[in-house]
Design brief:
By secondary structure, the protein is an alpha/beta fold. It is built from 22 helices and 20 strands. The strands form four sheets. It has a seven-stranded mixed β-sheet with strand order 13-12-11-10-9-8-15, with helices on one face. β3 (87-96) and β4 (99-108) form a beta hairpin. α18 (576-589) packs across α19 (593-604) and α19 crosses α22. Mean pLDDT is 94; it is low at 316-325.
């Protein structure tokens, strides 16, 4: 299947080499890049401002030779677009009535759909637009006759695809995007999801970073995709320089950027996520409020319907690529770990912020209830380790002694020697009050009371056998909290809550406060790895943390088998790195399971598909299509079936934009909902 079958649209920003005041030559380079974009499967190609004659023509723009040549160039581009899929926006000067306008012509498949004049004309520093052009507001009518055809004319046009859901294009010209309220803001409130800016934009030192900020923030504020294409090599350098800067942003994220100061023509492309934009706007009720505030004005926006026809690869089999072999290869980065920021600099900052949020949450809770002790179970695994480190940081900042952290390791029937030793080493090295309570006697008593087969010597390690141990640990912790005047600090993470991989009620699902409730397993691993690298802990603590990080994730509730293999959580429920990927895209964006499956294949299908950050080589996994679909099926089933555990989850701070599963926060869902609709969609039923 093509990217178009999963709610994406490929868009292109094209920067041709310009010959100033030579429309015929510029038409040829424009057509060449347009055809390349069409062959690459693009639905939209955006060129720079005044690209058919050159932005830097100055007074020559008023010469009839340039004006008529530009019209002929437009006719050539329109003719050459016949039979091509993409929508195309090109810049040129047009005389409409008595005025000369700096315009973007929007065309497709041999037909001119509409013309957008520039609204705001800069007349400061190096810019002299008012010397030549009339502004959009000066147009005496809402249509123009161009090349013998009357077409819509104005800055209020939205080009809506009838056969690509969510694709609605608004076009503006250069300065229009730099004013406090760009025309595209109104268009986005009116439903435009793709905002294009044809720009001249001579370069000065530092302008690139400002353009990045402007483009990404504009896409975020409008909840839209934004294409910005500036003029490049060939524009006149009499007094100015041009870098050919082009960028594609989506809802605050930069998807693609051109190489600046290239001597040849170039294009950039990216696959924008129309589903994501639709979901974000649907959820952002404050945006809908503003739409209502300006409903009368927005109703006056003019909508130009058009059809793409057959887009490259759409509806094809997953293994049927287009001529370039890219129909089913997504042209954007898909992070393998969506809860984890990419880039070592961002990762360090975010990991520190995760800790600060957890610490603030716990500190505020202790202050509110007036207690200065916590009780925590320390297993020697990832989650309890992170919770203990958060507790230590909290008590240090509050000026409380670490000995007020009452940490207990509670070995059961399957606790390994190495795990137990790590738990003790961690508690000792951190200076908390550490102790050991063997829960096996109390578990044996309960199993006997239940007349469980294990009490009669049978090796029956069922869910009751496991949950007796989990329940005994939790029961001890709560009574220890009563006895010592503290609260039980929860350790279970977001991934376990999503899968229901926790014992309900009198078990690890319950606590007085849980600092890990919004932290997924993949982020737990990255935070601990960052803590090791930070150098903030002693060598002994860092060594223990490294051992914990490298061990198999296990509840250690079932004794090892005959082969000595210990119980593995991921063997039972699947890889956490896949489940975290599924969880993020399901709850954050509400994607269809088939789309999540497609994204997972893009992210995890090859080891070199995307760059890795801090993951060691041994942790760089690859999953085939069958494995991804298998565990996505398990995820959908378990996620829906275990809502009752989340409906009664304890308090804890929300950590990331991926959300929490608290019914008081991001996720409200009935506990008795069926997963069938998700499974049917995933399997095409």
């Amino acid at each position: 299947m093509s990217v178009y079958d999963h709610g994406f649209a490929r868009v292109t920003g094209a920067v041709p080499v310009v010959r100033v005041a030579d429309p015929k030559a510029n038409a040829e380079t424009t057509i060449d890049l347009m055809r390349q974009a069409a062959a690459d499967g693009s639905s939209l190609v955006v060129f720079p401002e005044m690209g058919l004659c050159g932005y830097s023509v100055d007074d020559l723009v008023q010469q009839d030779a340039v004006l008529s040549g530009s019209l002929r160039a437009l006719a050539e581009v329109i003719a050459a677009s016949a039979g091509l899929a993409p929508l195309v926006a090109v810049g040129l000067p047009l005389v409409v009535g008595d005025g000369l306008y700096n315009c973007a012509a929007v065309l497709r498949d041999g037909r001119l759909l509409g013309v957008v004049p520039k609204s705001y004309l800069p007349n400061y520093r190096e810019f002299y637009d008012k010397r030549y052009y009339a502004a959009a507001r000066d147009a005496p009518r809402e249509s123009a006759t161009v090349l013998g055809t009357e077409v819509p004319f104005g800055a209020d046009l939205i080009f809506e695809a009838t056969d690509l859901p969510g694709f609605a294009l608004h076009v503006e010209v250069c300065e229009d995007g730099w004013v406090p309220i760009p025309p595209s803001v109104w268009a986005s409130l009116g439903g435009a999801t793709v905002l294009a800016n044809l720009s001249g934009s001579p370069v000065t030192v530092g302008k690139e970073s400002y353009r990045t900020l402007l483009g990404t923030s504009h896409s975020a504020r409008c909840v839209a995709a934004h294409l910005y294409v500036a003029a490049g090599f060939g524009e006149s350098t009499t007094d100015l320089a041009w870098d050919g800067d082009a960028l594609i942003a989506e809802n605050g994220s930069l998807l693609a950027r051109s190489r600046r100061f290239e001597f040849g023509g170039q294009s950039i492309s990216a696959d924008i996520d129309l589903d994501r934009l639709r979901q974000e706007r649907m959820r952002m009720t404050s945006m809908r409020d503003q739409v209502g505030d300006h409903a009368d004005d927005l109703k006056r926006l003019r909508r130009i319907p058009f059809s793409f026809g057959a887009l490259p690869g759409a509806g094809a089999r997953a293994d049927a690529a287009d001529a370039t072999g890219s129909a089913d290869v997504l042209r954007r980065g898909i992070p393998r770990f969506p809860f984890v920021p990419s880039g070592t600099g961002d990762l360090a900052e975010r990991c520190r912020e995760v800790g600060n949020i957890q610490v603030q949450g716990l500190a505020a809770r202790l202050r509110a209830i007036g207690l200065d002790k916590i009780v925590i179970g320390v297993s020697g695994g990832l989650d309890s380790t992170l919770a203990l480190l958060v507790a230590v940081d909290t008590f240090d900042r509050l000026g409380l002694p670490r000995t007020n952290i009452l940490a207990y390791t509670m070995p059961g029937f399957a606790t390994g020697d190495a795990t137990l030793q790590r738990a003790h080493a961690l508690m000792d090295s951190l200076g908390v009050s550490g102790a050991e309570i063997d829960i096996r006697p109390s578990c044996e008593q309960m199993l006997a009371d239940l007349d469980h087969p294990y009490a009669h010597g049978e090796k029956v390690f069922d869910v009751t056998f496991e949950n007796v141990q989990a329940g005994e640990r939790t029961s001890h912790l709560f009574r220890l909290a009563n006895h010592n005047g503290g609260i039980v600090l929860g350790t279970g993470d977001l991934s376990e809550l999503a899968l229901g991989w926790c014992t309900y009620g009198v078990g690890d699902q319950m606590s007085h406060y849980n600092v890990n409730a919004s932290v997924p397993k993949t982020l737990v691993r990255h935070v601990i790895r960052w803590m090791i690298d930070s150098g903030e802990f002693s060598d002994t603590t860092s060594k223990v943390l490294a051992e914990i990080l490298g061990d198999v994730i296990s509840p250690e509730l079932v004794p090892p088998g005959a082969d000595g293999a210990i119980q593995s959580t991921e063997d039972a429920v699947g890889p956490y790195e896949l489940h975290d990927f599924f969880l993020y895209h399901l709850t954050r964006f509400g994607y269809r399971p088939s789309k999540i499956n497609f994204l997972a294949r893009q992210a995890w299908g090859a080891v070199d598909r995307a760059p890795w950050d801090t993951e060691p080589l041994r942790d760089r996994n690859v999953y085939d299509d069958a494995t991804i679909e298998k565990w996505l099926t398990v995820f959908c089933q378990r996620f829906m079936a275990n809502q009752f555990k989340r409906s009664a989850m304890p308090n804890g701070p929300k950590i990331g934009s991926g959300g929490s599963l608290s019914p008081r926060g991001d996720w409200r869902s009935p506990s008795d909902a069926s997963s069938q609709a998700w499974l049917d969609e995933l399997h095409g039923e």
